[in-house]
Amino acid sequence: MVCELRCWHRIEKKSYRLTPEERHEYARYLYEKQYQRYPAVANQMLLVMARMSVLLNNYERAAQELADIRIDKFNPAQLKLYYYLKVVTAMAAGDATGIQESQMCYAGIPDTKCTYPSKAELASG
Q1: Across the chain, where does the E strand assignment appear?
Q2: DSSP H/E element including 65
Q3: Apex CA 36: angle with CA 17 and CA 29, to 5°?
Q4: What is the pLDDT of residues 82-122, one digit of tens each?
Q5: DSSP state of 109
Q6: Cα separation of 63 and 49, whole Å?
Q7: Distance (Å, rounded) from C-alpha 114 to C-alpha 112?
């Protein structure tokens, strides 16, 4: 398992040098190879695939990939990306209800990467 994680880290670094289409295909390959044994890896690969599909303006494919994701094991950053992509695909499909629901979910997830000023600092500033 440790060897697989080390190999995965090397593979992940190399994948950033690929074009979006190549990254999508590579993530699909990993998804198809690992989804039975490692559901968390499969979900991460689906998220990468959906992101690459959006970058390639293939919103229908991205929506299908997002539909296949099980979000129960996602961390807050992954959930934010998931709901952001859901907003984008809903906008492309013209789905007003989907846009509203996804925006609400997106806004409800705390942003853990940024530090915001306190309310006292904002009030005094």
Answers
A1: none
A2: helix 59-67
A3: 25
A4: 999 999 999 999 999 999 999 999 999 987 766 666 667 66
A5: S
A6: 10
A7: 6
